[in-house]
């Protein structure tokens, strides 16, 4: 797959300088780029490597002197990662899923498969399932009874879609994502020690040790358009009402979404983060990697939760929180500074104690 620099510039909405007829088959960092590849030099670090590259052309930020590196052309972009979004889309060949329905796929006669959909070997499509047009379903995917998958969806190998799940258009699920498994919901016949401790903030004494009774998940999962879910992530179905994910939200690998959660539009949840049951996220919320949100909390529109944070209370719209327990970023910084000063403070207090003690002895 080869593209001319003119085609690349047009696709990125970028400025072309030099020979637009040069064709490239891919992209690489300057030190490893071949003469048929586009050198990516959109930072000072990579731009410094351009003089030694074998590439004939480069993707650079406006203002970089690419001619001094001996190149024949350059595509000039204002914002590096936005340019990478367009360039990577251009060169990505997509998954290797053959068109049509593979003879090794198992599709219930009552299922409806849209036009131009592709279904790979060992996929299992259950009764009353609806698959949208142009959907691509890789091998070993399971879509259970009554689920709905929108147009142009991409389900990669090993994805599991539970019964009754509803998913909008242009959905992407990376390998082994599970959408619509049961929620983690259990109760004891009498109030447990954990419940008592949470209510009183004290260690319960004499709490009975009881078995856990399962609360079954009767709800579903409803996902909007343009949502992506990473590899090995899980979205639990609701207990009674549906777990919901809004349009445009992107979820990284190894993320846990608990039962009854409601996630707004265009949220970003990074790897190994988790939402306990019944959490509500507003629109455009960012949850950093390995952050955790306790159950029944509300995170306002545009809030940012820093990586590794533990959220134990509601977060106002637009607020940036970090730490455990998570507090405002400026407050956390002050706490951290104070914590680093503690050893010195302890030494000073000990010295003062000794001085006071000596003064008392001399009296």
Provide a descriptive summary of the structure in words.
Among the domains are: 3-91, Udp-n-acetylmuramoylalanyl-d-glutamate--2,6- Diaminopimelate Ligase, Chain: A, domain 1 (3-Layer(aba) Sandwich), CATH 3.40.1390.10; 328-362. It has five helices and 39 strands. The chain has an eleven-stranded mixed β-sheet. Strands 8-11-14-17-20-25-28-31-34-37 form a ten-stranded parallel β-sheet, with no helix packed on it. A nine-stranded parallel β-sheet has the order 9-12-15-18-23-26-29-32-35, with no helix packed on it. The termini are far apart.
CATH superfamily of the domain at 3-91: MurE/MurF, N-terminal domain
Provide the gyration radius in Å: 28 Å
CATH class of the domain at 3-91: Alpha Beta
Look at the helices and sheets and give the structural class: alpha/beta
**Percent helix:** 10-25%
CATH architecture of the domain at 3-91: 3-Layer(aba) Sandwich
| Sheet of most strands | 11 strands, mixed
The pLDDT mean sits at 96
Number of strands: 39
The rounded distance between the terminal residues' Cα atoms is: 92 Å
Q: Quickly count the helices.
A: 5
Query: What proportion of the residues form beta strands (DSSP E)?
Result: 25-35%
**CATH topology grouping of the domain at 3-91:** Udp-n-acetylmuramoylalanyl-d-glutamate--2,6- Diaminopimelate Ligase, Chain: A, domain 1
State the low-pLDDT regions, or none: none
Strands side by side in the biggest sheet: 10-13-16-19-24-27-30-33-36-38-39
Give the overall shape, derived from the CA principal axes: flat
């Amino acid at each position: 797959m080869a593209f001319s620099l003119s085609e690349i510039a047009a696709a990125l909405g970028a400025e072309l300088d030099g020979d637009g007829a040069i064709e490239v088959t891919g992209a690489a960092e300057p030190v490893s780029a071949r003469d048929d590849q586009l050198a990516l030099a959109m930072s000072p670090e990579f731009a410094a490597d351009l003089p030694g590259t074998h590439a004939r052309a480069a993707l650079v930020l406006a203002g970089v002197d690419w001619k001094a590196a001996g190149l024949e052309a350059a595509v000039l972009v204002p914002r590096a990662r936005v340019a990478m979004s367009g360039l990577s889309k251009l060169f990505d060949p997509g998954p290797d899923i053959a068109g049509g329905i593979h003879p090794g796929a198992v599709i219930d006669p009552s299922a409806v498969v849209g036009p131009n959909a592709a279904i790979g070997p060992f996929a299992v499509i259950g009764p009353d399932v609806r698959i949208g047009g142009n959907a691509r379903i890789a091998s070993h995917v399971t879509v259970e009874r009554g689920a709905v998958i929108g147009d142009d969806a991409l389900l990669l190998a090993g994805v599991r879609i539970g019964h009754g799940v509803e998913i909008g258009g242009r959905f992407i699920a990376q390998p082994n994502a599970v959408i619509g498994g049961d929620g983690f919901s259990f109760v004891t016949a009498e109030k447990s020690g954990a419940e008592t401790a949470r209510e009183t903030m004290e260690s319960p004494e004499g709490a009975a040790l009881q078995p856990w009774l399962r609360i079954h998940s009767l709800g579903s999962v409803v996902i909007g358009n343009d949502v992506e879910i990473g590899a090995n992530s899980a979205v639990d179905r609701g207990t009674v009402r549906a777990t919901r994910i809004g349009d445009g939200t992107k979820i990284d690998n190894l993320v846990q979404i608990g039962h009854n959660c409601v996630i707004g539009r265009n949220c970003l949840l990074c790897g190994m983060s988790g939402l306990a049951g019944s959490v509500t996220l507003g629109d455009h919320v960012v949850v950093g990697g390995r952050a955790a949100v306790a159950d029944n909390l509300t995170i306002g529109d545009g809030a940012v939760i820093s990586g590794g944070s533990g959220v134990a209370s509601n977060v106002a719209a637009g607020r940036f929180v970090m730490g455990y327990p998570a507090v405002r970023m400026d407050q956390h910084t002050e706490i951290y500074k104070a914590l680093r000063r503690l050893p010195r403070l302890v030494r000073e207090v000990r010295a003062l104690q000794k001085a006071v003690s000596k003064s008392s002895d001399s009296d």
